[in-house]
């Protein structure tokens, strides 16, 4: 994109990246996997070649017929091979712009740009899959800058400095997984999964560990409990590390930027003006350890799927840092007021009624 186009908040009609048909084909294969299995089962090379050619032709037409542009104060998307669909998203309705990079995206140097609007559906309003990484960053900056002008804010500087608010280490993320809801989720999965051991022959179990069939000694029972607890907590910690590795919450001008992910790298940008609610969550275990989690609820998401709040959540934070982060997210909301306990008579009534 040329600099004058970016400065004016205008992007002429463009097509997606040349590699987009590859991702279109992957999406079609996932939805038509029964047909794919049928073709492979027949082992008819001519039929398989015809199917591959048809898929390549269709995805190529999808790429040719899909264009996007930024003009007239709106993001415009046209797509469809047989039936044409045109979508117009006013820039002042844009709530969040996400940059998603899965392992294949990172290998090929591309990204998916997702645009969500206030009051939209649970899915992204516009999903550009895929565009070049440089173009995705430039388009995101254009959308946010044009949105700021349309919404009455002063436009952000093109090179606004980034100030890190929260950055979590791998140790902190592992602790978040152990003390958070991930541990309960892993435990719920390990219970049914342990029943798979019934399918393992006793002869194999004895060869691996003679005490595995019937651990009767206290030492064997203790070792089994320790191994199970280590597996449980290790999986809880690992799942959080994979999801939130490299977690960084930063502020660039009047926008929040959240980066996270080990295999699938996600980068979300949310204007501070869209932040409506900040929830501070403290479980009993985290209260004892002096820890908390923070979730950001943005405009247009109340009463709907909490996926946006999940993407904009700080998994773990020392309780003493809550007021500092809260002041960045909702100016004037910090410090958190001290909660008062109900009088003894009210507590007695509550116990008696229950």
How would you describe the overall organization of this protein?
The chain has 354 residues and is of the alpha+beta class. The protein has 14 helices and 14 strands. It has a 7-stranded antiparallel beta sheet with strand order 7-6-5-11-10-9-8, with helices on both faces. A 4-stranded antiparallel beta sheet has the order 1-2-3-4. It is flat and about 70 Å long.
How would you summarize the topology of this molecule?
Blueprint: H1 3-7, E1 11-15, H2 20-31, H3 33-42, H4 45-64, E2 67-71, E3 74-79, E4 85-90, E5 94-101, H5 103-108, E6 110-117, E7 126-132, H6 133-150, E8 162-167, H7 170-179, H8 181-194, H9 202-208, H10 218-244, E9 248-252, E10 255-260, E11 265-271, E12 275-281, H11 284-289, E13 291-298, H12 307-311, E14 313-318, H13 322-329, H14 344-353
Antiparallel strand pairs: 1-2, 2-3, 3-4, 5-6, 5-11, 6-7, 8-9, 9-10, 10-11, 12-13, 13-14
Helix pairs in contact: 2-4, 7-10, 8-10
Shape: flat
- The assigned structural class equals alpha+beta
**Span between termini:** 65 Å
> What is the average of the pLDDT values?
82
Outline the biggest β-sheet.
7 strands, antiparallel
Q: Which parts are unreliable, with pLDDT below 50 for 5 consecutive residues or more?
A: 1-7, 301-306
| Helix share, percent | 40-55%
Give helix and strand order, one letter per element, not per position: HEHHHEEEEHEEHEHHHHEEEEHEHEHH
Q: Which properties best describe this structure?
A:
single chain, 354 residues, alpha+beta, seven-stranded antiparallel β-sheet, four-stranded antiparallel β-sheet, 14 helices, flat, disordered N terminus
């Amino acid at each position: 994109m040329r600099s004058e186009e970016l400065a004016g908040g205008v992007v002429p009609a463009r097509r997606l990246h040349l590699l987009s048909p590859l991702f279109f084909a992957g999406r079609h294969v996932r939805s038509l996997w029964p047909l794919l299995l049928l073709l492979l089962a027949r082992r008819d090379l001519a039929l398989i070649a015809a199917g591959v050619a048809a898929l390549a032709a269709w995805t190529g037409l999808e790429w040719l017929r899909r264009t996007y542009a930024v003009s007239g104060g709106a993001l415009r998307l046209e797509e469809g091979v047989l039936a044409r669909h045109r979508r117009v998203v006013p820039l002042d309705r844009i709530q969040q712009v996400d940059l998603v990079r899965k392992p294949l995206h990172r290998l090929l140097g591309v990204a998916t740009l997702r645009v969500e609007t206030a009051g939209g559906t649970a899915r992204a309003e516009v999903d550009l899959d895929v565009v070049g990484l440089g173009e995705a960053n430039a388009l995101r900056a254009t959308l946010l800058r044009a949105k700021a002008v349309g919404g009455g804010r002063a436009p952000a500087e093109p090179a606004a400095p980034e100030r890190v608010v929260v950055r979590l280490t791998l140790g902190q993320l592992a602790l978040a997984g152990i003390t958070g809801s991930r541990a309960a989720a892993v435990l719920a999965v390990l219970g049914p999964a342990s029943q798979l051991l019934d399918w393992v022959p006793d002869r194999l179990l004895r060869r691996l560990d003679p005490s595995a069939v019937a651990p009767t000694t206290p030492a064997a029972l203790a070792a089994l409990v320790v191994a199970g607890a280590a597996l449980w907590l290790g999986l809880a910690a690992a799942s959080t590390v994979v999801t939130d590795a490299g977690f960084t919450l930063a502020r660039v001008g009047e926008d929040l930027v959240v980066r996270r992910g080990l295999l699938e790298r996600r980068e979300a940008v949310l204007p501070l003006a869209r932040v409506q609610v900040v929830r501070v969550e403290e479980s009993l275990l985290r209260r004892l350890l002096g820890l908390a989690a923070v979730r950001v609820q943005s405009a247009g998401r109340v009463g709907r799927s909490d996926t946006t709040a999940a993407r904009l959540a700080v998994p773990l934070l020392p309780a003493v840092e809550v007021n500092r982060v809260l002041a960045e997210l909702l100016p004037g909301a910090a410090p958190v007021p001290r909660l008062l306990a109900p009088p003894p008579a009210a507590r007695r009534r509550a116990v008696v009624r229950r």
